Model the fold of this input.
Amino acid sequence: MSGRQAHLVGSLPGGDAEEAMRTALRQLGGVLPRLPDGETGDRRNWIIHIIESFRSHPDLELVRQGDWSDYDRTPRFRIRKGHQLYGAGLDFGHVAAVQASLPAFERVAAEFGRDDLVYQVGVPGDFDMAMFTLGPAAALRHRRPFTEATVSEVRRIHTLLGDRAVFQIEIPAELVLLARVPARGRPAAARLLGRRVAALAAGAAEGTRFGVHLCLGDMNHRALGRMRDAMPLVQLSNALADAWPPARPLEFIHAPLAAADQPPPLDPVFYSPLDRLRLPVGVRFVAGFAHEDQSLHDQLLIRSMLDDHLAGPVDISTACGLGRRSPAAAESAMERISALCAQ
Done:
């Protein structure tokens, strides 16, 4: 597959994985190289179902209630006094999810004649898992078990699927944090954050294929953070590329240019830092700007600016997954991705 490609971040509308994947291929088939299983059911809200499962974890205790109605209304846990938290004691459910949806993936791929289709596995970053579970300060002290559990699940899925799978590491905390750092301190912060994400990939088996989804948050289809311009995502993308481990192909970086319910800006100044993006040959830049609440005319103008800054056609996506939108809105967003790939 060559030329401009489409990308789906993860969650999709559908009653089950097979329905979600069939809808995606019907909308985007020819330009979609990778297919997530739709993360339907409890998984539609990213990591909420995982963190909720910790209410019964023997080594964790709840210290703050939360109903997930907003970013400051989330539950918070801590490690129980006298207990230790180990990676072997954490199950994020990624392996079981792949095992459950893989037969549907194979049926849908065969139905559409897509024996080239790659199974895309969404993997929340280890720091993000730790931060949303324990809070920022405790996440820095207790990141290791989340790293171990994430790497273990990636290795197990890679054993099952080999190079048929690409793992999308999802890191809203890093991008939102970097966007809040004063400009003078951002280059050093980006290098540190990029090294830590790359270290997660380094724990995977050689040959494991990766992409990275930079994110501004999309809980209840509202963003956790905003950017004044594209500089934070440029700095973090460059840092990731510089630190990426050998023999673990980095295939794409997805960058949010919209922010949940907010369409991407039209001001050319916002996009000017993209001139400084330095991705190695073979790493595709996926522009997350497709948005059904902005006119196609305006979106084509943005696409033209992006192509000019990147000296070639960018790939097209929304800023985040579509499972938190109504089915009609999600299908409109996929239709917009298709239109932006085609024109």
